[in-house]
Amino acid sequence: MSVGKIAVALWVVTVSAFAFYFVRGNISISADQRHAIQLNTEEKDFVLAEMRSFLLSINGILKGLHENDMIAVSKAAKSAGIGMAVDASPLLMVKLPLEFKIMGMGLHKDFDKLSTDTQAGIDRDQVIHKLFELTSKCVSCHQVYRLSTDLTD
Description:
One of its GO terms (biological process) is electron transport chain. The chain is mainly α.
């Protein structure tokens, strides 16, 4: 077998392995039957910080609604938009299952859309409905996944 064929074969194996892990992620089944995403401590802290920023944004949206301040609602929604998702490391992204990545990026886009829609003049009831849809995605993700740093989890 020539060196070129060996190199191509190794490249195919490497790309295939990367694709497999990019889709599957680094998961196991936890004691509560959710998918436990295996991360190191720093990666787990990063993902949890992003989740906390979602909660801060939701809290700001609710405060803006309470105060009838749609500008504050729009700003709070924008703070959790796609612009905050740029700092994730490629190694972390490989460890996250594809469905988790899709939900997370979709959630960022939903916050951006809520911000844009609020600027366009949707009313409070529409904001509340969109917020319900948005938080339903959070709930469904938390029902399926958990973050873990312990491989026995």
